[in-house]
């Protein structure tokens, strides 16, 4: 450690800490617009471009960016002199001078880091007349890029290129023309963008945001000829509460269900039901591949890859087109739900396909894109009509004048409201494969699984390989790989491709932490501790449930008996499985 002084306070700080980190450790906040640190996952973005964090060091004339400058013995730092406050005000005025002043109608209003700082520093008058940048805005089914609002912090670039390794965004052009964009300023839709939404999650302003579909929902709810049903993803319920003052990880399922009913949905269902359904198909596929492998079938494809994350599916389609025979062909729970709702439930209820509107509430922006994929529609009618994010649901609740915290707790509607604990854990990294293992174990061994907690499959490090000693394949334990974040997924897949790692099953989720860290969740502003709390929240729901294996969900059993037949059977194949495209 080294001894330093910050604003006259003596501090002992780790030797290689930045001034920013040392100050933070004693509660001295230095403002910054470009820095983003998710140190827990080894990810730091310090471009030092905004200069808001400059500080004085040892009475020198030069100022130093606190995010980039390391502490040393005897350093004396001032972070809040009148001169520094004036400099920060000047920087803010300069940024604001060529930033649109449409805060009232901006999607990020109330969540914008630039707006917060302008308020904090009481910027009331912008003395500079900046060049007005005018860029073409780009709208995809999931994400809107409104680059007039970009402040060139370049967090999105680091996220897209270094963390997700998608390499979609970089600075193009020069001088005032510079803009962060796909190459040749293409639209996101015409690139290999996965719509993971992580660039949106880290954008400090409203330059990147989701495509908002709240009005489409309101409009459908007002249409008397439509029956509007909603399904809610596993990760939403442990994060939605954050929008209403609850701690991250708080399970607000009951209030959320009540709120959805008050908004006007005719039926409130649970994507978790379909997560159990996904496990029936994925575990059957895993079992079938293992059995074929044990029978000496040389053509069998192992490892099997989970396929419920649409950003991950798009990533493998673009980046590993030669490996498309490996992922499970099971559709995601969102799409299984909608297929069953429109092809089975609507008929049972006597509702015409086009009069049934399926809305999904997802922690994810890529789900909007997934819903728009052509293969998930019939005669032009999509299986999932509208997908909104957790943030959009919070906004719908507010628009409807609902006092969320005063609501009583209600339960999901039957039959698609019942789920096992295995379905809940879909929302966190490692959960899908743990859920599949619980079922596959019983189906492969024919024995009852007593301890469903495969703790070796849990954790938040970027990727992990774990063994299941209870499940022996050819005298060795089943080996499972897990990766979250597309960069870690890429590394794991390269190892599999190069035969450096021999695995039987792999779960990949595009976002850090899995869906709990999705691009549609309440903004966590780079605080990984929030993702950890959501993880624990999800796990607590699973642990508290009586039924924790998907195949024990009585409504799932009934659906197979009444309609689907056998997992991977003909009907299941037609409705619950899909194809991939290179
Ligand atoms: Fe997910 Fe999934 S877990 S992909 O993370 O398989 O979005 O929550 O809904 O479809 O169930 C997301 C979450 C979600 C699907 C499920
Ligand atoms: Fe990159 Fe994901 Fe953003 Fe697309 S959505 S630009 S892949 S970070």
Fold-level CATH name of the domain at 278-332 and 419-576: Fe-only Hydrogenase (Larger Subunit), Chain L, domain 3
Largest sheet: 5 strands, mixed
Enumerate the spans where pLDDT stays under 50 for 5 or more consecutive residues. none
> How much of the residues is beta strand, in percent?
15-25%
- Determine the mean pLDDT: 95
**Spatial arrangement of strands, main beta sheet:** 2-1-7-5-6
CATH superfamily of the domain at 278-332 and 419-576: Fe-only Hydrogenase (Larger Subunit), Chain L, domain 3
Walk me through what this model shows.
GO terms for molecular function: 4 iron, 4 sulfur cluster binding; ferredoxin hydrogenase activity; iron ion binding. Residues 141-171, 182-213 form the 4Fe-4S ferredoxin-type domain. Residues 1-83 form the 2Fe-2S ferredoxin-type domain. It comes from Ilyobacter polytropus (strain ATCC 51220 / DSM 2926 / LMG 16218 / CuHBu1). Residues 83-122 form the 4Fe-4S His(Cys)3-ligated-type domain. The structure is a single chain. The chain is an alpha/beta fold and 582 residues long. Among the domains are: 2-120, Roll (Ubiquitin-like (UB roll)), CATH 3.10.20; 278-332 and 419-576, Fe-only Hydrogenase (Larger Subunit), Chain L, domain 3. Helices cover 34% and strands 16% of the residues. It is built from 18 helices and 22 strands. It has a five-stranded mixed β-sheet, with helices on one face. Helix 8 (271-294) crosses helix 14. The longest helix has 24 residues, at 271-294. The relative contact order is 0.12. The mean pLDDT is 95. It binds 2 iron/2 sulfur/5 carbonyl/2 water inorganic cluster and iron/sulfur cluster (SF4).
């Amino acid at each position: 450690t080294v001894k330093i002084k910050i604003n006259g306070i003596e501090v002992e700080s780790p030797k290689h800490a930045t001034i920013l980190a040392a100050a933070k450790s004693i509660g001295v906040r230095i403002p910054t617009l470009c820095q983003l640190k998710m140190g827990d996952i080894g990810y730091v973005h310090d471009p030092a471009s905004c200069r808001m964090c400059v500080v004085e060091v040892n009475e020198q004339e030069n100022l130093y960016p606190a995010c980039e400058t390391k502490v040393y013995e005897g350093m004396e730092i001032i972070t809040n002199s009148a001169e520094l406050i004036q400099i920060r005000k000047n920087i803010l005025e300069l940024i604001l001078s060529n930033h649109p002043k449409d805060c009232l109608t901006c999607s990020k209003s109330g969540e914008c880091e630039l707006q917060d700082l302008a308020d904090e520093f009481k910027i009331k008058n912008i003395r500079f007349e900046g060049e007005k940048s005018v860029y073409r805005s780009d709208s995809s089914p999931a994400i809107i890029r409104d680059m007039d609002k970009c402040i060139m912090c370049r967090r999105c670039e680091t996220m897209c290129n270094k963390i997700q390794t998608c390499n979609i965004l970089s600075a193009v052009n020069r001088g005032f023309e510079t803009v962060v964009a796909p190459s040749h300023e293409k639209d996101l839709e015409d690139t290999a963008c996965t719509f993971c939404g992580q660039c949106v999650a880290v954008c400090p302003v409203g330059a990147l945001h989701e495509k908002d579909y709240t009005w489409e929902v309101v409009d459908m709810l007002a249409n008397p000829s439509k029956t509007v049903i909603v399904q809610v993803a596993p990760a939403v319920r442990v994060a939605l509460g954050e929008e209403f003052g609850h701690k991250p990880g708080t399970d607000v399922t009951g209030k959320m269900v009540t709120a959805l009913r008050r908004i006007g949905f005719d039926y409130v269902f649970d994507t978790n039901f379909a997560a159990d359904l996904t496990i029936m198909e994925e575990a059957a596929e895993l079992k079938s591949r293992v059995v074929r492998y044990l029978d000496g079938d040389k053509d069998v494809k192992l490892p099997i890859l989970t396929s419920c994350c649409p950003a991950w599916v798009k990533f493998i389609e673009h980046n590993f087109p030669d490996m498309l025979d490996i992922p499970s062909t099971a559709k995601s729970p969102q799409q299984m739900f909608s297929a069953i709702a429109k092809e089975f439930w609507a008929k049972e209820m006597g509702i015409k396909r086009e009069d049934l509107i399926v809305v999904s509430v997802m922690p994810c922006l890529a789900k909007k894109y997934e819903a728009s994929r052509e293969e998930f529609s019939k005669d032009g009618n999509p299986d999932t009509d509208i997908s909104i994010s957790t943030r959009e649901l919070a906004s719908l609740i507010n628009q409807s004048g609902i006092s969320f915290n005063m609501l009583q707790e209600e339960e999901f509607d039957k039959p698609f409201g019942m789920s096992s604990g295995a379905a809940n854990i879909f929302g966190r990294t490692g959960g899908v494969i743990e859920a599949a293992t619980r079922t596959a174990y019983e189906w492969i061994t024919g024995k009852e699984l007593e301890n469903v907690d495969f703790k070796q499959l849990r954790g938040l490090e970027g990727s992990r390989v774990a063994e299941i000693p209870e499940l022996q394949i050819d005298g060795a334990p089943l080996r499972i790989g897990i990766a979250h974040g597309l960069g870690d997924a890429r590394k794991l897949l390269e190892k599999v491709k190069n035969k450096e790692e021999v695995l039987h099953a792999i779960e990949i989720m595009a976002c850090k932490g899995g869906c709990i860290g999705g691009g549609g969740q309440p903004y966590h502003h780079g605080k990984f501790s929030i993702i950890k709390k959501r993880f624990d929240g999800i796990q607590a729901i699973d642990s508290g449930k009586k039924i924790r294996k998907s195949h024990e969900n009585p409504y799932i059993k009934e659906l197979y008996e009444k309609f689907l037949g056998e997992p991977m059977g003909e009907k299941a194949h037609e409705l619950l499985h899909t194809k991939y495209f290179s």
